[in-house]
Amino acid sequence: MIDGAGKTLLPGLIDAHTHVWPGTLESALSFGVTTELAMFSDPAAAKVLRDQQAAGTATARADMLSAGTLVTAPGGHGTQFGMPIPTITMPAEAQAFIDARLAEGSDYIKIVYDNGHTYGMTLSTNSRETLRALISATHARQKLAVVHIGDLASARDAIDAGADGLVHLYVDQAPDAEFAAFVARHRAFVVPTMTGLKSIAYSSLTAIPPPTSPPRARLSASGSRAYGLTAPRLPQRSHPRATMLPARHAGLSQAS
After folding, report:
1. Do residues 25 and 36 lie in contact, with contact meaning Cβ atoms separated by under 8 Å?
2. Is residue 6 part of a domain?
3. Phi–psi pair at 101, nearest 5 degrees
4. Is residue 2 part of a domain?
């Protein structure tokens, strides 16, 4: 029993967009995060973690739910990280593709709808028709369909197609109240990952405008950031800074 007199009890926090590496679930717990929603995981590794959670042997780390393998086109986002993954090419493949991901253990489905131009890249991506078919196939199995986007037009397409949520906010212009109302009308949600996007877009935290700076949307041919800063090309590898920088920017440090 713990004497709670004079203390404050908080519920465990949920980190709604993470990428799990060895040790990150343990680190998450030190920040008060008790559940992590992983947005791209090796299905076999996720199964090991999930089985340990079910057996009650994972008490010293955060729990994890996972999208497993994300749903992307050949040459699309997610194929650049050095691990072979299945891809989809047409709407007719949607139900079989979704069923295969669920058979691997995916707790929900993450769909990529992003051609990379916002970041100065050129990537293949799912067509609007394939996006709709994938969302419909996911809902047919009573699972959530969330979508990775990079710009406002893609965000609106995804919500209009019936996505349950977006796992990033768009970065080609500043968000406004009309978009928030649009999302609310569709009863969807947005995981903004704002600091994570900044950690990728800017070379250092010193380049990030302070919270009191007024938003300024200034777009360039290469796809500038909201707040008037130009985004460099994304590295063609995983980016662990996107996991730890949000906590550091908030003034937190990792517990030893």
Report:
1. yes
2. no
3. -65, -40
4. no
Each residue's pLDDT, cut to its tens digit, for the chain (256 residues) gives 889 899 988 899 999 999 999 999 999 999 999 999 999 999 999 999 999 999 999 999 999 999 999 999 999 999 988 889 999 999 999 999 999 999 999 999 999 999 998 888 899 999 999 999 999 999 999 999 999 999 999 999 999 999 999 999 998 888 889 999 999 999 999 999 988 887 766 533 444 444 443 333 333 333 333 323 333 333 333 333 333 433 343 344 444 3
Tell me the H-state helices in the chain: 24-30, 43-55, 94-104, 128-140, 152-160, 177-185, 194-201, 241-249
Q: State how beta strands 145-148 and 63-66 pair.
A: unpaired
Beta bridge partners of 166: 147, 190
Edge-first strand listing for the sheet containing 165-166: 109-112, 145-148, 165-166, 189-190
| CATH number, domain containing residue 117 | 3.20.20.140
Token readout for 164 is 């349950």
Beta bridge partners of 66: 38
Same domain, 44 and 79: no
- Alpha carbon 44 to its chain centroid, in Å, reads 20
Helix, strand, coil share (%) of the chain residues, nearest 5 = 35, 15, 55
Last residue of a domain, one of 66, 92, 110: 66
